[in-house]
Structures are given as structure tokens and as C-alpha cells.
Amino acid sequence: MSSTTRRAALAGAGALVVGTVAATVLLRKPPAPVIHTLLPDEAIALQPVSALQPTTPPAPPAAATFTDATGTSHSLADFAGEGLIVNCWATWCAPCVAEMPALQALARKVAEDNILVLPLSSDRGGVDVVRKFYAAHGIADLPVWLDPKAAASEAWGVRGLPTTLIIDRQGREQGRFEGAVDWSADATVARLRQLVG
To answer: Is the pTM for the entire model greater than 0.85?
Structure first.
């Protein structure tokens, strides 16, 4: 084999390796977040209040921080004396999308009881992604809260999305729901009021 042919073969092999590495890197790149819109045949059943997993004994969740829409850090301690419904979710999570209208309805119903709904989004795109999602789904009564890199969710032992922690006025977790919940049901609202005290 001549040296010219050998060089051409090596150059071709090198280009093949570089192309393969580039394709592998591109395939490993995390996908951009998408706004999931449920189709009629994708209906997700919302769980009743009986799906609540009680925390026994009630105890304060682990210390963790999350941010508001301005990027200011907060912790659950900032809401001392208030009842909290802390919903860990993301715009790309189909069950989260399914329960969001009911979560908004809950926020309206319990606002007068000094109970706050804190929807903590773990979306990588941050505030803009959540605001676009809210606009696309008619969500006007929920604030934007962020859990960057899902750090708070991890600290609280969240195993999947959505997961919702029920925090009483003494700062203790009374229970949690794993999965989408029918937040607007009268029985759910009554039980939450009872749990937060």
C-alpha cells in the first residue's frame, strides 16, 4: 500500500471516529423541555384524597431551598404559621399537566384559610418555561416557584413527579401524595384543611 493511500485511509478512519463521537455526544445531550398537551385518549385519572400517605409521626421536612420568580431563595421556614401544599412538578410530566387545573382550583378555595399552594417546578428552563406553560394552559392563579436541579425534591425524598407534601402550620409534614390528585374535590379540600390545622 502506498504512503498516499495509507494516509487517505487513516484520514478517512479519523473522520469516521470524529463523526461517531460527535453523534454520540449529540444523542446524550438532554432534550429540551416540552410543553405536554394531553390528548383525549391520554386521560390520566386523578387520585382521591384516600391516596394520601400519612407521615407518622408528623415531622418537619429536611432543610432545603427553592426560589421565587425573581430568583430569591426561600425555605419552608419562611412560611411559618401558614398551611402549605407543596407540589413538586414539571411541565414535561403528563400527570403534572393533568392535575394543574385542579391545583389552581384548590389554591382559589384555600386562599381565605391562609393555606398556600407552592408549585415547585424542576424545569431546567426556569421561569420562562413555567410562564409559557401557565399561559398555554390558562393557569393564572398559581405563582411561579422553582426547584433548580430538583434539590429540594431530593432533600425531601421525592421519588417521582408529581409529589405533593402537606405541611401544617407548625411546619411539619402531615402526609404526601405521589401522583396526580383531584385537588378540587370537596373531600380533598376538607381533608387538607383538617391536616394543616
So the answer is: no
